[in-house]
Amino acid sequence: MRLKSTLDASGPQYRERRAAMLAKIAELDAEHGKALAGGGEKYVARHRERGKMLVRERIEMLLDPDSPFLELSPLAAWGSDFPVGASVVTGIGVVEGVECMIVANDPTVRGGASNPWTVKKSFRAADIALENRLPVINLVESGGADLPTQKEIFIPGGRMFRDLTRLSAAGIPTIALVFGNSTAGGAYIPGMCDHVVMVKERAKVFLGGPPLVKMATGEEADDEELGGAEMHARTSGLADHMAVDEADALRLGRQIVRGLNHRRLGPEPGPVAEPLYDAEELAGIVPEDLKIPFDPREVIARVADGSEFDEFKPLYGTSLVTGWTRVHGYPIGVLANAQGVLFGEEAKKAAQFIQLANRAGTPLLFLHNTTGYMVGKEYEQSGIIKAGALMINAVANSGVPHISIVMGASYGAGNYGMCGRAYDPRFLFTWPSAKSAVMGPQQLAGVLSIVGRQAAQARGQVYDEDGDRAMRELVEAQIESESLPFFLSGRLYDDGVIDPRDTRTVLGLCLSVVHNAPVRGADGFGVFRM
Taking the alpha carbons of 75, 77, 81, 87 in that order, is the dihedral positive or negative? Predict the structure, then answer.
């Protein structure tokens, strides 16, 4: 069925919502600008004076001309003591026609040293590569671990090397292009990759540098003798190729990918039809006050091929919209929150729909705007816990790829039922309008107030109303700030905050990526408590 939009793009409500969203997008652009700035003008200038490319210039030269690059977690470390971006750029791009995961150190940020958020961001990139069979290309130039925070890096950081070997064992190629330092533990990145390119007179790969060797053994040696590209190409055999400069290293990287004979294992897309409605209008759909509901079909109409959507059970469980469509030629099932609250009917409808998607081998898209499952005596007695468990069971054990986009609210167990981060969607992106927490700020502060009041009454004390008011304001402010997309993205609870108008493009890229691997439904589910 072709969706018919009722959005009035000339009306005051639309203009108000659009203005609020554009303001949030401007804030997003400013935060992304911090990541693009790397270590700042001083360190960028120093890097260029050394005749080196910036990290995104290396990526651009590596990728096929005019091909897209889906950058992941650009706001990692936002709100922490470390620069936005976590000193590493990760993302998916096309090299010689092959979709690859790129992991590239930014040497303008503390020499590319790894901090706790670098490690977490790299882990996420490895997970995506493994799940979706993406060859991994490491663009290496790092001073190793950020030593003051080694206690948070050393123990978990060993997983980076484990991941490389597991990718290789799974038949997923790994490549290291070494542009500069790759020392101490970082030496194991080229050490554990399938293919290694080192730049002559620039690459330095060793377990211990000259000062450490002098202290440990008394031996005198320089950088080139210990770990230069020439030594590794001629003597140790660690380098498979020695590049004359950075451009040559990137050329050799493309040459290696060209020879991989790496094939996609999922079905190819069908014909593509553009939506009937303008993606620009996606900026005016979500209200600034998330308590006000909006129709997710207006979003689907601007994302789906031809604005076609075959709705499933449209008259039952109407707070959740479910149905089938295509995006950039790929079939997909959609679960989208309509009125915020999930009741028992919505949960049962979702569980059945997820089973059908698994039977058909169709990926699923979750569009979040939920305050969670309904509470209250009537709903508890009618079995809302069982119904919610039914939906969460279906989501948790579904075998087809899941993609989640948080458009508005994503509170409580509704976040779980709609495949939040804890349920391992292949990709999860948020809009600048999104908020996510255990519950809304006012509700959480109110609960604490009620509990405090009851405790005071039980002790026979007079409740401090002024203190209660101050506590509510403090808690509401804290929960509000911790619910916002920049905060959540900084902690890698999503794969990035995106402009709503880019949603169809991002979904198309994600669907293309997941089809590098076979797409299969689950063979069975856990016990459904009926």
Answer: negative
